[in-house]
């Protein structure tokens, strides 16, 4: 029998993402404040890997930190605001800035020693090797 980790918050994360996409569809209105940057993330898998693709435009490599602990991957960083020009009269200001932190738990165990990360042109790609699922041993317990 294969054991799967129960992640009750996964459904809430999915719901929060759907609300975010819903509000982003309306021009001039977003659930994201301009001082609250949050990168767009796609997570996929193939037979051997879990792949994370993140759009992080305007963030420098030295302002990113990626950690993996207890099967939880965390991406954190900061998109710094460029010098503001006081003499400009903005018709619209939509770009967002600030610190961000995103964490993800995976439905399968990953090998923390075999992680690859590549950051190029504002795109972050992380590949994590999946570990073979552990099979639970059945043990018959004698009754006294």
Q: Can you give me a brief rundown of this structure?
A:
The chain is mainly beta. It contains 1 helix and 7 strands, in the order H-E-E-E-E-E-E-E. The longest helix is centred in the N-terminal third of the chain and has 16 residues.
At the fold tier of CATH, the topology name is Immunoglobulin-like
pLDDT averaged residue by residue: 82
The first-level CATH class is given as Mainly Beta
| Whole-number tally of structural domains | 1
Q: What is Rg?
A: 20 Å
According to DSSP, the number of beta strands is 7
Largest pleated sheet = 4 strands, antiparallel
Q: Unreliable segments (pLDDT under 50, ≥5 consecutive)? A: none
Helical fraction: 10-25%
**Spatial separation of the terminal alpha carbons:** 27 Å
So what's the overall shape? elongated
Which sequence of strands runs across the widest sheet?
A: 1-2-7-6
Q: Which H/E pattern describes the elements?
A: HEEEEEEE
Structural class: mainly beta
Number of distinct helices: 1
Strand content: 35-45%
Task: Tell me which CATH architecture applies here.
Answer: Sandwich
What attributes does this structure have?
144 residues, Immunoglobulin-like, four-stranded antiparallel beta sheet, three-stranded antiparallel beta sheet, 11% helix
What does this structure look like?
It is a single chain. The chain has a single domain, classed as Sandwich (Immunoglobulin-like). A 4-stranded antiparallel beta sheet has the order 1-2-7-6, with no helix packed on it. A 3-stranded antiparallel beta sheet has the order 3-4-5, with no helix packed on it. Helix content is 11%, strand content 38%. It is mostly beta strands and 144 residues long. Strand 6 and strand 7 form a beta hairpin.
């Amino acid at each position: 029998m294969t054991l799967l980790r129960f992640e009750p918050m996964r459904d809430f994360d999915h719901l929060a993402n759907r609300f975010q996409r819903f509000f982003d569809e309306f021009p001039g209105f977003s659930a994201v404040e301009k001082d609250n940057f949050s990168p767009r993330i796609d997570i996929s898998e193939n037979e051997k890997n879990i792949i994370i693709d993140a759009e992080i435009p305007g963030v420098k490599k030295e302002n990113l930190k990626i950690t993996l602990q207890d099967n939880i991957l965390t991406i954190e960083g900061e998109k710094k605001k460029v010098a503001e020009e006081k003499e400009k009269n903005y018709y619209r200001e939509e770009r967002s800035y600030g610190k961000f932190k995103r964490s993800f738990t995976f439905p399968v165990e990953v090998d923390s020693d075999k992680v690859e990360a590549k950051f190029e042109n504002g795109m972050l790609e992380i590949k994590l090797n999946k570990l073979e699922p552990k099979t639970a041993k059945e043990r018959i317990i004698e009754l006294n």
